[in-house]
Amino acid sequence: MTTASATATEDDRLSETFAALANSTRRAILARLAEGEATVNELAEPFELTLPAVSKHIKVLVQAGLVVRGQQAQYRPCALDAGPLEEVSTWAEQYRPVWEARFDRMGDYLARLRSQGKAGEADG
Question: What is the model's pTM?
Fold first, then answer.
């Protein structure tokens, strides 16, 4: 696989992960699975959704690689696969210098405002 096609595949996976994470119900399902595996019925409990609707959300999470389905006797528990979340973290990490620089500039600005305020108080 060439570097360009590898990057395209990584971008596709990242897009799929972000699309799955874009829904608050799916994020809540992932939060629950971070505590341990669960059945579809257990995952559906806190929601006012039908089981088929919850199953569709789980299917999106499975397709994005965020959830794996097990096979234990008569039920198929769901479990979190954090691999795609690590890819999101790695992607976001490249922007850390940008947001840190902005926080540093904001800190400098607030320090100037404070010193101007103190200078104004001393004059008054």
Answer: 0.73
